[in-house]
Amino acid sequence: MAKKTIHDFQRMVSKNEKISMLTAYDYPSASILEKAEIDIILVGDSLGMVVLGYDSTVPVTMEEMLHHTKAVRRGAPNTFIVADLPFLSYATSEDALKNAGRLIKEGDADAVKLEGGEGFAETVRVLTRAGISVVGHIGLTPQTISQLGGYKVQGKDFESASQLNQDALSLEKAGIIMLVLEAIPKQLAEIITTELSVPTIGIGAGDKCDGQVLVFHDLMGLFDKFVPKFVKQYESLGSLAVEAVKKYSKEVKESAFPTDKHSFSLSEEITNRLYDKKRK
Ligand code: KIV
User: What is the architecture of the domain spanning 6-235?
Assistant: First the structure.
């Protein structure tokens, strides 16, 4: 299958066809997503929590993002990949250009994503002018969780909802190709989706967005430290994996694994010669 482009995503929106996005952080998960023909892979900085075991996305570094983006590209050569710019890697336009450039040139991502509203419009402009496709992310922005006062739904009162609406319009004007809306009321997501011409991708933003995104480990039931209301677990791979490891460990202890099926053999003649040599 040919890799989809931003024109394909625009076409899907105009035909009312939803866009599916899911995170991946390594070669096997990326291969699974490509086989399943997901529209877009996001190498999210959520990898800090679900893969690296940090308490938040704040400690994630550029080197970590690059390492994982490269692995994802190897697993999904024909899928549109968006890579997250980690916290403080785009605080100035110079840093943004340098670091977004690395994700595109070294990581082979098709676009970068950054968190923030109209205050980041100039950064989006700089990156877009340089030829880098930028995905915006507003609403609950985990990189600035300390300013938001926790993982809470955003835009619940008139002022904050109006501000998010304004943020979306400013980012679109600055050149974003797509906008992630995280943890906002569905009515606000619908208003923003109707007003924007670029696709909106929701996570905890209701069903009226142009597409949806989830974290791979949440969908597969591989991360149970914190399960937000907007997560739907399609599988419970975490408990299946624990059972498989328990079975393996038991069989090792009982000498039930490995059997001949999983072993290599020498001929009787060579085996005997080796024993004879020992006896001499
Ligand atoms: O890092 C991430 O996985 C994200 C999604 C939750 C949108 O930004």
Answer: Alpha-Beta Barrel (3.20)
